[in-house]
Design brief:
Strand order of the largest sheet: 1-2-3-4
Radius of gyration: 36 Å
CATH superfamily: Outer membrane efflux proteins (OEP)
Oligomer: single chain
CATH architecture: Up-down Bundle
Helix content: over 70%
Mean pLDDT: 83
Number of strands: 4
Largest sheet: 4 strands, antiparallel
CATH topology: Outer membrane efflux proteins (OEP)
Length: about 400
């Protein structure tokens, strides 16, 4: 039993060091997510709370307190037997099967707690990944807007020079400057989103700073190729094979069944054994005592409560399995639709050729400045739509891949 206790305490405590393994092989966000899992205060608090809960469950299986009694009797002075006292020490025991069942329930409960903590680690890793994707999405928007703004600023400077030489109108100059101001507002909004995502990640990391400017992360942000989508069955298989919540619910059901066994055993008679020492009329007597405990009250209610707990856990596990499966199927359908739409956009917006052609058309006199500005705004709208679709696709993919973290560990 001592080995078992040590094993479970070490297992639950080691969950806080789980970030030593990479989240996904080749994942540019792995180091950031691992840091969050190591430093997150919520995970540390939950692990400590579960260690306390496990110890409390083991304490509930201890023997009753040893009972020590002392008795002294008095009579009239000078009466026979006026000096009389007794001392006894006794220990009570429940039916032996109750202790075995409670110990098995505590061990299964420890397994449930351990799996529950792994599930919380997965949830926290997904939360960190979502924030990183928000950060990357804002970075991509910022890069797009800065690129278009640089082109507008260059064109505005050239138009201003043309105006100074009498070759352009003041209206064209003002139109381009207004467009530059509009882009500045959009750039400021994207920068604010970057700062917000960074602040949320730092808070998730226990207030410690994170190096989001690492070369691998920047390269991943600049990558224009979204991750591929696997078959739907692969994500369902990962759920059934690696979701620690399913493992936690199975262990919790085993613990509840053992508690029912303990409740049944507790309804059987208990035993009390004791040592008795009496002193009477100058003579010492040694003996023993045997007692029988008859648990006549409350047994039915304890068994009914344990049975109801089994039904509740079983129903909850079934509900979780069905809802999570449905969520995976619906998320996969959404991701597949997004993937098709992304492919269509990528064929048109996959390079910077559109901006170059617009500039050529303007300088060649084929379109006016106002037409150019309208076309730029059209490009911005569609490019932002593309980035939004990619962001939604990556968020869906992150949710689908969340059980791969458990497989990788």
């Amino acid at each position: 039993m001592r080995h078992s206790i040590t094993r479970h305490i070490a297992l639950i405590g080691a969950l806080m060091c789980a970030a030593a393994a990479p989240v996904y092989a080749g994942d540019p966000y792995a180091d950031i997510i691992d840091a969050v899992l190591t430093n997150n205060a919520d995970l540390a608090s939950q692990a400590a709370a579960m260690r306390a809960e496990y110890q409390a469950a083991k304490a509930d299986n201890a023997l009753p307190a040893t009972e020590v009694e002392f008795e002294r009797s008095y009579a009239h002075k000078g009466a026979p037997g006026s000096d009389r006292w007794a001392l006894s020490v006794s220990q009570g025991f429940e039916w032996p099967g109750a202790y075995k069942a409670r110990n098995a329930a505590a061990e299964a409960h420890a397994d449930a707690l351990s799996a529950m903590q792994r599930s919380r680690v997965l949830d926290k890793a997904l939360e960190a990944r979502m924030l990183l994707l928000e950060w990357s999405y804002a970075q991509r928007r910022l890069t797009l807007l800065q690129s278009i703004a640089a082109n507008i600023d260059s064109l505005s400077a050239a138009t201003t020079r043309s105006f100074d030489m009498g070759e352009a109108s003041i209206l064209d100059v003002k139109k381009l400057k207004l467009q530059s101001l509009l882009l500045s507002n959009d750039i400021a909004g994207a920068s604010a989103d970057i700062d917000a995502a960074r602040a949320a990640l730092i808070a998730l990391n226990g207030g410690k700073t994170l190096d989001l400017d690492a070369a691998g992360i920047i390269a991943a942000t600049a990558d224009d190729t979204p991750q591929p989508l696997a078959a739907e069955e692969a994500y369902l298989d990962a759920f059934y094979q690696h979701d620690p919540m399913l493992q936690s619910q199975a262990a919790a059901l085993t613990a509840a069944q053992q508690r029912l066994s303990a409740a049944k055993a507790s309804s059987l008679p208990g035993l009390s054994l004791g040592y008795v020492h009496n002193y009477e009329d100058g003579t010492h007597f040694n003996g023993f005592s045997v007692g029988l405990t008859l648990p006549l009250w409350g047994g039915n209610r304890r068994r009914a409560a344990a049975t109801a707990a089994i039904e509740s856990i079983s129903a909850g596990a079934s509900s979780y399995e069905m809802s999570t499966r449905a969520d995976i199927i619906s998320t996969y359908a959404r991701a597949r639709s997004l993937q098709r739409r992304l492919h269509s956009y990528a064929q048109v917006l996959g390079d910077a050729e559109y901006q170059r052609l617009l500039r050529v058309a303007l300088t060649g006199g084929q379109i006016s400045v106002m037409q150019y500005i309208n076309e730029v705004n059209y490009l911005i709208d569609n490019s932002c739509t593309y980035l939004s679709l990619r962001h939604d696709y990556e968020m869906s993919l992150a949710r689908l891949n969340r059980f791969s973290l458990e497989a990788a560990r």
